[in-house]
Amino acid sequence: MISRSALRASQAARPSAMLARRGFHSTPARFESPYHYPEGPYSNIPFNPKTKYFAVRYWGTMAFFFSLPFDIAVWQTYKNV
Question: Taking the CA of residue 56 as centre, how many other CA atoms within 13 Å lie in the half-sphere pointing to its CB?
């Protein structure tokens, strides 16, 4: 059986082994990096859902893109008449 002091001494001789055993949760976020983006709710979407007319713009966009194939089909039908 290896005592704790002997285990610590063997790990002190190999600092890379100690870094490899370190858990991800113990590593803090590095905010000095230019590639770190803000975290939290609503930070990973390219629009702001808290604006006044967001629902109108959202449903207007959905209605436009839903009706687009049907409108194209009607236009193609009447174009060949």
Answer: 3
